[in-house]
Amino acid sequence: MTASPLGSWLFVDASPFFGGHEVMLLRWIDELQAQAQVRPRVLARASSRLLDQAPQATRCEPFPAEGGLRAELQWLRRSVRALEPECVVVASGALGAHVPHVMMLRAMGLRVLLYVPLLGAFASMGYRLGAWKDRFVRWFYAKVPSGWVAITEAQADEFRAWARPSGPVFVLPNTIAPELEQAARMPVRARGPQEPLRALVLGRLDAHQKGLDLLLDHLAQSDPARYGGLHFSLVGDGPYHGDIEATVRTHPALAQHVQLQPWMSAHAALADCDVLLLCSRYEGVPLVMLEAMALGVPVVCSDLPGTQPYVPAGCRFAVGDIAAALAALQTLRPVERRRQLADAGRAGFEAQASGRAFSAHVQQLTRSVRARFNIPGAAAAMSEAPGIAGFQATRELSMLVTVYIPTKNRLALLQRAVASVLAQTHQDLEVIVADDGSTDGTLAWLEQLSTQDGRIRFFHHAQSLGAPAARNKAIRSARGEWVTGLDDDDSFMPERLALFLEHAARLDASGQRYSGLYATEVIESEKRSYTLDKPAVTEFGDLFRYNTIGNQIFARRQAYLDAGLFDESMPAWQDLDLFLRMVHKCGPAHLVPQATYRLADDDRSDRISKKKKPKLIDAYARICAKWPDAPATDKQRLYLQLLAPFYGFPLEWADVRRYFGQGVSLSAAVALFKNVVKRAQRHGRAAAA
Fold first, then answer.
1. By the 8 A CB rule, do 407 and 488 touch?
2. Domain count, the chain
3. 169 vs 147: CA distance, rounded Å
4. What positions does the domain Glycosyltransferase 2-like occupy (predicted)?
């Protein structure tokens, strides 16, 4: 059987400028070419450095130098007709750029991804007529592209919240040049009592975006004694250069603390500083921040979606709060503090922005795009029909799965749970442990384990935020296309992930719409071990009658995000609440009939989810409020879940009043009567035992 030719992805950038976004575009193209899953092609201006630096084999005939926008669009239409790409990526330095190009491509029926470094609302970034531009995006333009590519999860979440796009928002984090990543780390110098701490401001000298006007105005109006131990080097060029010179001349005291230098390489500039300072009003993911982290230089920066995943909270300040920025700088005078931040920054870079991490991100993005738009990949062409051989090929295809495990002060149980994941027959996985305030040695164990196995990631909440918050943070940071959970007192059987992936491949091949997959559990307690029969398909209404999915679902990460993740305000039934939203939005859930999950059902005092009736009643009321149009019979059956023998609550008159408060009918009375009979039978068996 001959191999299917690679599909092409066309990258379009009509900008005459070359900046950080174009650098990232080149890295993306290089990585795609190396991975050989798609054939990247580049369409840009003839004079563009982007086209000059793109690999020769990827270059298309450039846009015409003359003729304006109309000639560009005609050339673009001709190019896509000749290439017939499976996907077009339009790289846009700003959200409002390239609008005609995107609209024309969509009118031609092409899949279009818009790759933008900044997805914040125009009004929040101080744009002229920002409110009107935001309305244009929210009401119209957010519905035009097939999908979007952001550079952080926080930016993607922000964009989903304010723009409400109709297509998915994928994420491709930034990285840096390989030569900088491989360069030796900068030495962390001790500064004497009379030596100033040297802060570097590096990049385009732009007043508004980079916040340089905020910095200079604050320094000019403040008593120099308040920043006497600091020296600021402003390195770069741009429209604000003359204003900086004029401000320094007007305020002679500033000349002792502010030095303006011409542009130089990031390596040279960072070699002469103690800390990088970013005062920006808005940013994507600043490349200079990643470069500083890679070279071991601490960073103090504005608190923005693009900086939050990389810089610790103590080194971030509210946008415009220069006094807080200066205070944060002063805390870095001790050399040990800077060494700690340098080590943490390098570790964070390795995990999130290194070349290895970027390669994994590109591979994951390619899979996610193809899966979302049902584009067959190279491996899918190995089988012309969905037979056994085809599913074996799918199983062998590398498919990253994220398993998240929330935990708190249960180290021995956690170690067993993690071991069961690492023992999976499907080994392309990552484990994210969400440590919600443990004080029993869990953190030290995770730190040691993560250095031994790169598939282990973790985060630690100094104060407990609750299991739903921990799960949500883990899902947001997941790199896998597929995500599932594991409670720390439960465990996986070795074939669990592989069986899920095989079943998902069958459903995808058949074109069925579904939200996720679930499996049979082996329920283990001190007295017995048993399984429960489950239906082959779970629809929305079924979940009111019984949570047939259980406590975990295997679903694409995007399905969790589309459903809104776990509701952190729910006092109980957080999983049932999420499953209702997922199934309602994304389609029914399907059963993998094999038992692949060991669920602990013993009554321990340290259980995360304790069976407290007031919490369940509150959860019941909240779910009913979320689905006001659900039939009364469904809400009554939901209340019967609360009265199930599993919980062991006594039936009280208040329960009867709540139950019939949804409506009185013969079927409702019969359902309640059956519940009472089951409870009596279980009580009788327990008494006999």
1. yes
2. 4
3. 6
4. 402-524
